[in-house]
Amino acid sequence: MICKTKHYFFDHQYEVYIEEGYILIGKQKDSIKYKIAFQNKMLIFWIFQQGKFFGFKILLKEKWKQFDMNHENCLKLKNSLDGKIGYHKMDSLYKLLDTVGLGSYSEVLLIESYVDNKKYIAKKMAINSKNIVSFFNNELYALQNLKHKNIIEMKEFYVGFADSYIIMNYIEGESLAKYMRYNKKICVKEIINILKQILEALEYIHLNGFIHRDIKPENILFERDHKFLTIIDFGFATKIEKQEYNAGTPGYIAPEVFENVISTEKCDIFSLGCILYELQSKQQLLECMVRNCFKEILLKRFSWQT
User: Could you tell me which residue ranges the Protein kinase domain spans (predicted)?
Assistant: First the structure.
């Protein structure tokens, strides 16, 4: 892929290569001038105007260096880099359509791409605390490494000075929580289909050394036909051996988590068991209200509904 950059008053032509976690820019492969490692930081700004790419800027030694490149090569380069390196200024490539969700540390936005005119979901996080940086990095690392039909797919990510965004495929449908709320009777065949897909995704997650730590109906999305589902929200996901804190949602957390025991794959399975109980009984497994779950579990006073 050919690009050009100005050096004083002259244009210099270079080739761009992608190799082993690096962007390489040079006159030839054996004479590389710029070597940029893939990082989860703000590194590339795409120059996009009136429906076409005209090049890109790379952050080198805290200064933006511009490289001109035609639209087709920019698309090819961007497709090779999506999800592997941090981009800058999401609003240059996407139009905000709506805010579809608000969480304790993030906003979920419905956006539309100026490049392919498709809808996507953007998870926006204000990077203003160590915890939120950790949530962002957890989700990013998990989605970079987990590729499965029942796991939300990340497209790319943007890192700004105040806010960062993870761009994911848009799923037109509803959460399992909403589905259960409006469907009083869910047949055994449907329950088996739901469990089978979640278990297949969890098996894949666990075999790759991750745990989700927040399996709950709100984090499972049904597509419109209610046959295919996707697990979302990997903000608490982590490698089993790299846990810095315990996490989860009251009502779905395994009891041992409250005794500062390191979470394992079994904690995700416990959460799934809570969902199974809810699918069958239309009630949460723990009799205590969500806001009192911590106290009840810590005191080990369980009242199992039968």
Answer: 94-306
Confidence band for 297, pLDDT divided at 50, 70 and 90: low
Nearest residue to 142 via CA among 129, 131, 153: 153
23 in Cβ contact with 10 (< 8 Å): no
DSSP state of 151: B
- Measured CA angle at 191 (ends 186, 194), to 5 deg: 125
Q: What is the C-alpha to C-alpha distance for residues 296 and 38, in angstroms, rounded to an integer?
A: 46
pLDDT at 56: 96
Question: What is the rounded CA–CA span in Å between residue 193 and residue 214?
Answer: 20
Give the model's pLDDT for residue 273: 94
Catalytic status, residue 91: no
Please indicate if the annotation marks 4 as binding a ligand: no
Please report, as a single letter, which amino acid is at residue 86: G
**Residue 60 pLDDT greater than 60, yes or no:** yes
**pLDDT tier for residue 281 given thresholds of 50, 70 and 90:** confident
Each residue's pLDDT tens digit, 175-198:
999 999 888 788 999 999 999 999
Residues 6+ apart with CB under 8 A from 224: 172, 173
Contacts of 144 (CB under 8 A, 6+ apart): 83, 84, 154
Question: If pLDDT is split at 50, 70 and 90, which confidence band does 166 have?
Answer: very high
Please tell me the distance from the alpha carbon of residue 248 to that of residue 198, in angstroms, as a whole number. Answer: 17
- The single residue of 116, 214, 225, 268 carrying the catalytic annotation is 214
**Residue in this structure with the two tokens 């009840």, named with its chain if needed:** 296
What's the maximum distance between 2 C-alpha atoms anywhere in the chain? Answer: 80
